[in-house]
Amino acid sequence: MDVEETKASHLSVVLDLSPAHWELSARDQPHNTHPLSLASFLSQLLAFLNAHIACRDENTLAVFGAFPKKSVMLYSSTEPPTNWVSSDTTGNAYPPFNAVDSTVVQRISAELERLESPEGEEVPPSALVGALTKALCYVNRISLPPNPNSKAQANGFHPGVLPDPRILILSVSPDLSTSYIPIMNSIFSAQKLKATIDVCQVYGHNSVFLQQAAHLTGGSYILLERRDALLQYLMMSFLPPPSIRKTLSVPTQDQVDFRAACFCHKKIVDIGFVCSVCLSIYCTPLPVCTTCRTKFPMKTLTRLKAAQPLLLGVAGGVMTNGGNKGTTTNGGR
């Protein structure tokens, strides 16, 4: 068998734990015919995490939680927790499985109990980007050449063997336009680390930014139609590591929404104007780029503003700095 198909695999799981959206997901409503509570979600997720550990002894796992205004690491197999309390009273559970189950559930419960939500105030969004960034930093750390004195090697890594990294995002929240730039930076970092980003949108509508993250890193994006079959989706679509997916027929996206968020109002736009110097995106032509402070000729701004009504049927627009119409130039160079 090919070495690429038998090497160890690392999985980082990012959990969107927004209480407000999980409450909506658990409600039985006309538009939500298959409600899924947080407790049911965790029970199916833990079975999936145990399956990843059982696939290969050298496989590693890290779990990150995205709470409102906060992101934390819930579990790491390279640095197993020492203060977890076993949830198995019979003593018959496999210790690695028991450690994952107990640690993840206990830490999620502890974090949710610490949340303060005063009445009348809007619940802040979950720190999904922060959790994704921490997952990327973790992948970067364990992907470095092995150190004989490191804890990672003591827990399964061997000299010359690097993990096959991937990140699975389980989201229930809609897109935040303010997170466009951080998510794009995370995508570029994942490409550099050769880390695959998979996305499972458990509740809500399609996420534009997470669709792009999965597409640009070679991962899979799935919007659940039957939330009560979450475990089946996880096992069939996200359990195989990237080294094995080349021989399997994994789900792919028929269409990807590549819309961006403007830098001025932080909203998703169909038609944008791009600064020719720093590539910042704006929904309307501006005399001065707010990012790099480049000044644009008034003749160019007048032409672009006059052409705005004609651009409604066009997929994108370009702001030029003294160059020809329809091109991105700097001072006509």
UniProtKB/TrEMBL annotation:
<keyword id="KW-0234">DNA repair</keyword>
<keyword id="KW-0539">Nucleus</keyword>
<comment type="similarity">
    <text>Belongs to the TFB4 family.</text>
</comment>
<keyword id="KW-0863">Zinc-finger</keyword>
<keyword id="KW-0804">Transcription</keyword>
<keyword id="KW-0862">Zinc</keyword>
<protein>
    <recommendedName>
        <fullName>General transcription and DNA repair factor IIH subunit TFB4</fullName>
    </recommendedName>
</protein>
<comment type="subunit">
    <text>Component of the 7-subunit TFIIH core complex composed of XPB/SSL2, XPD/RAD3, SSL1, TFB1, TFB2, TFB4 and TFB5, which is active in NER. The core complex associates with the 3-subunit CTD-kinase module TFIIK composed of CCL1, KIN28 and TFB3 to form the 10-subunit holoenzyme (holo-TFIIH) active in transcription.</text>
</comment>
<comment type="function">
    <text>Component of the general transcription and DNA repair factor IIH (TFIIH) core complex, which is involved in general and transcription-coupled nucleotide excision repair (NER) of damaged DNA and, when complexed to TFIIK, in RNA transcription by RNA polymerase II. In NER, TFIIH acts by opening DNA around the lesion to allow the excision of the damaged oligonucleotide and its replacement by a new DNA fragment. In transcription, TFIIH has an essential role in transcription initiation.</text>
</comment>
<dbReference type="InterPro" id="IPR036465">
    <property type="entry name" value="vWFA_dom_sf"/>
</dbReference>
<keyword id="KW-0227">DNA damage</keyword>
<keyword id="KW-0479">Metal-binding</keyword>
<dbReference type="InterPro" id="IPR004600">
    <property type="entry name" value="TFIIH_Tfb4/GTF2H3"/>
</dbReference>
<keyword id="KW-0805">Transcription regulation</keyword>
<dbReference type="Pfam" id="PF03850">
    <property type="entry name" value="Tfb4"/>
</dbReference>
